[in-house]
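Q: Predict the assembly, please.
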Amino acid sequence: MHMKVVVSGADGRLGMALCRALASDHTVTGIGLQVDAGGDLGASRYRQVDLRLPEAVRESIVEAEVIVHAQPHSRSASVEQDPDGTAWLDLVARGTYVLTTAACDVGIGRIVLISQLRLMDDYAEDLAVRPYWLPLPEADAAGLAPYTAELVGREIARSGRIEVTCLRFGDLDATPGTSSADAARAVADAIQRERPDRGHSWDIHHVATTGRFAPSGR
Amino acid sequence: MAVVAGGRVVIFGAGGPVGAAAIEALKENYTLRLTDVRPMAEISAQASVQGRRAPVPELLASPHENMVVDVSDYGQVERACQGMDAAINLTVLRPDLEKAFAVNMTGAYNIARAAVACGLKRLIHTGPFHTTLEHDADYWNDHRLVDDIPLHPGGDLYALTKYLGGEITRVFAERHGLEVLVFLFCGFRPRRIEPAERGKGTGPFIVSWEDAGESFLYGLRAAQMPSPYETFFICAKTPDRKHRVDKAKRLLGWEAKDTFEELLRKPPGP
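A: Predicted assembly structure:
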């Protein structure tokens, strides 16, 4: 089914890759902090939007049917003047809050939130880690940022106003990591799904191509 | 040992009424460094924004100290933690989007980070336990709730940003062995009950300002905790049986003296 999709973090590698892939089946608008995306978005449009600003965010998503929130996955190069990482932490946590709240307000039914498989790295290598296990972020801003995005998404989903599907990816096209093709496939599936698992408004999945979290556990 | 029986304690957000109550309870036993985003002298000279019966902090003289600290600025927070034995985080900002994240989340991050960097023995973090949040998982319809249940803030800005600050503090506690006690509050009221209030009842999860202040004295002096991050309901035992209060008594030795019998019992008939 053709949909109108907004992809956040479109000025980063993952956001760009998702814009390019999704644009073949959907009408896609990428949004990001930078004036220009700085790369190939395929057939997607691009808009500069600061996710911390509710009015700007609301305006950018008002016509969308689904949002792919890729920004929390990897630190944006556009966040400067951030020696201790708290600007990035604030951008991710507040940005997720503003985006998800705005989506609720304009009646968008689903967000696909892209988080980081690194949150599960501290579990012993020989454990068959499942997505529902407690994330174990590092005690620094870079480690905590995707965790706060997950908490914000999960909690707003709890209100029943929106469905949030969280996909944890590894580093893009790295080994271990998640390939662009697997990332695009997982997102395309998530935006089309009927309903998250077990009737909950929040569900979570691991998407890895190689490494310990891949289906083959390589 | 993380016990802080004496020494120097920094309080962040000391200018609010909980800060006022904590100052009153701690000032004879500790040397306090009182910090707020506004000068303590300015705050002490004004009535509380939380009503005429809410306490206003006393302006303390040396050896206590007063500092202006914006908790969203790590450098200011670390300077305030230097030379301290313990910290108490009472900061909170409710309605403003940017400031709520800056104070409730980034502020908690900065305080936990500085507490680790400065080698503090104990951090008392505070936050709200919302008895109702307008969604079905808010525990409003439950009873005998225990201190360690996971908070479900939903999309409420204040509840959610304080929740993020608490989770970040937990990660620091578990990663670095920083001992963190979390005191959860909801409703406050004065110890004194006015004649017109008798028999009018009260909401759940209530504590007097005075008892709230004393809880910090018990928190600092309590023996080492079973885990680096322990959460406590700071509220009076009331007949509704909605919230258990035995953990604070068991691990801190604290229980509310004020149980508001005069509010909760109907006055004798004519």
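Residues 95 and 148 of chain A are 10 Å apart (CA to CA). Chain A touches chain B at residues 52, 54, 84, 86, 89-90, 93-94, 97-98, 100-101, 104, 137-139, 141, 143-144, 147-148, 151-152, 155-156, 158-161 (CB under 8 Å).
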